[in-house]
Structures are given as structure tokens and as C-alpha cells.
Design goal:
297 residues; mainly alpha; single chain; flat; disordered C terminus
């Protein structure tokens, strides 16, 4: 009887494993296929894409969409600006977020609860778009590189994650032992806390980098000259110009409109491929960092 129960348990376990594997593969295909479709559509004849004949592989291979995007000189200016904003903006974000989170995580910091409340308050209430614009204008940040780097140098959600890591991820006994050896808070933070936080630094850095890379609203509001506009805003303007030209092109404008469709897919690939290249190098830290604090004992 016991043997039969064990056999039934094994069958149920195998059945669940098969179902679970099938379900995970199905979810992966649902999530991955749209990105794959964008990729193959960017290399396909726009007429085939418009006719719905592109499903699993490119049809009528062409690079016209990429040629239309890459021949724009403004694209490279946008790339340069976005790379600059992403690299230096992320460094500033980390330099502001981690010391602030460490200070609030210290139990001997008496006003920590009040400071935390003030930080959290800004997540639910803000000054609004017009007061923020007036503030940027008063600080003379409009149409400068600093408007992309300084005003939004701390994200409260990321700040809370880092504070929680410092509170639960690093033993308090380590700080006590460092104090006995004459180590101050600043030295402890730089030489002990930060080296032990490499995983969370990689995760938070990736969050900030993706936000900087995808940011176009800041440029839309505060950047007037091309030399300050980020990549996303430049690509948007290229697409709008192409759509306007195709709609007023007269003879052959119908085919031009189809090539604008191909151009849309090419723009998506051009704007996302740098992050897709960088992500594998940070994946091991990302997987570790998102689990920090999840399991204790």
C-alpha cells in the first residue's frame, strides 16, 4: 500500500513538473515573441509586414529601415548625449542614493524616521509640472546638460531598496567590530559597506541606467537645442519628420508610408540594442541583487 502511494506521488510530481515546464515555456514565448517580431519586421519588406505575412522569419529581407535611420546625422548626436547622461547620471544617482540610504539605515541616527517620512511623502505628492518648470528656470538649468543629471538624482523607490539592504543585508556586529577598531562611519561606509554591496549597486545602477536611457520627457520639456537632446527624443523627431514627408510626398507616398512602418521597427532595435548588449554582463549581479533580503535565517 505504501509502495503504491509512493508511485502515485512520483507520477503526480512528474506530471506537475511537465505542466510547470510547459507553462514556463508558454509564458516565455508570449513575452519573447513581440520582441522577436519587432526584430524580424525591421529586416522585412514593409509590404510583407503590412500584409501580415511576417510571422516567424523575415520576408523580403531589406535594410532600408536601418538605412533611413542611420543616415540621419542627428542620430549620432542623440547617441552621444544619451550615453553621457546614462553614464554620468547613473554615477551621480549612486553617489547620492547610497550615502543617503546608509545614513537613514543607521539606528543611531535619531531623526531617521522623520527623514524617511519626508522622502516617502515625495512619492505621493509633488509640486506639479508647472512649478517644477518654474523651479528649473529659476535655477537656470533649462537647456543645459545639468537638467538631465542633477534635479532627479535620487529615486525614492530605489532609495528605500538600498536602505532596506543596509538594514538587513549587512550584520550590525560588523559595524560594532569596526567601531572597536576605531573606524568611523564614513570609513566604514566606504571600505566595508560599499564593497559588500556590489550586487545591490549593480541592480540599482541598472535601474537608473535604464531610466536615463529611456528618458525623453525631460528632453521634451527642458531641452531646446539639438546638442542637448537625448536619443529617444531625436528618434521621435526623425520618425515624425519621416511620417510628415511620406504624407505630403505625392506620387509614391503610399510606398513611403510603408517604409515608415519599417523605420519604426528599426528605431526600436536601434534604441534598445545597447542595453541588450550590456545586460548579460550584469545579469549575475541582477539575479543576486533582486533576492537580497528575500530569504533570512
Amino acid at each position: 500500500m505504501a509502495k503504491k502511494k509512493n508511485e502515485n506521488a512520483v507520477i503526480v510530481s512528474r506530471g506537475f513538473s511537465i505542466f510547470n515546464s510547459f507553462f514556463c515555456v508558454l509564458v516565455f514565448l508570449i513575452v519573447a515573441y513581440p520582441l522577436y517580431y519587432v526584430l524580424i519586421a525591421s529586416f522585412s519588406d514593409p509590404m510583407m509586414v503590412s500584409a501580415g505575412k511576417v510571422v516567424f522569419w523575415p520576408e523580403g529581407f531589406t535594410l532600408k529601415g536601418y538605412e533611413m535611420v542611420l543616415e540621419e546625422n542627428d542620430l549620432w548626436i542623440g547617441y552621444r548625449n544619451t550615453i553621457f547622461y546614462t553614464v554620468f547620471g547613473t554615477l551621480i544617482n549612486i553617489a547620492v542614493t547610497f550615502p543617503a540610504a546608509y545614513a537613514v539605515s543607521r539606528r543611531d541616527f535619531m531623526p531617521r524616521r522623520v527623514v524617511m517620512l519626508l522622502f516617502v511623502f515625495t512619492m505621493f505628492f509633488s509640486g506639479g509640472l508647472i512649478p517644477t518648470y518654474i523651479l528649473m528656470r529659476s535655477l537656470k538649468l533649462i537647456n543645459t546638460i545639468w537638467v538631465f543629471l542633477l534635479p532627479f538624482s535620487l529615486n525614492v523607490y530605489n532609495f528605500i531598496i538600498v536602505r532596506s539592504f543596509f538594514e538587513t543585508g549587512i550584520p550590525e556586529e560588523l559595524h560594532d567590530a569596526a567601531q572597536l577598531d576605531g573606524c568611523g562611519d564614513f570609513r566604514y561606509f566606504m571600505t566595508i559597506a560599499m564593497p559588500l554591496s556590489r550586487a545591490i549597486v549593480a541592480v540599482i545602477g541598472l535601474y537608473y541606467a535604464v531610466a536615463h536611457w529611456n528618458d525623453y520627457f525631460t528632453g521634451l520639456l527642458y531641452a531646446r537645442d539639438l546638442c542637448y537632446k537625448p536619443l529617444q527624443l531625436v528618434l521621435r523627431e526623425i520618425l515624425l519628420v519621416a511620417q510628415s514627408s511620406s504624407q505630403t510626398g505625392g506620387t509614391g507616398s503610399g510606398y513611403a508610408i510603408l517604409y515608415v512602418i519599417s523605420m519604426k521597427y528599426s528605431i526600436i532595435i536601434v534604441s534598445t540594442i545597447p542595453l541588450m548588449i550590456i545586460y548579460p554582463f550584469l545579469q549575475k549581479y541582477f539575479e543576486k541583487g533582486v533576492m537580497l533580503g528575500a530569504i533570512k535565517g
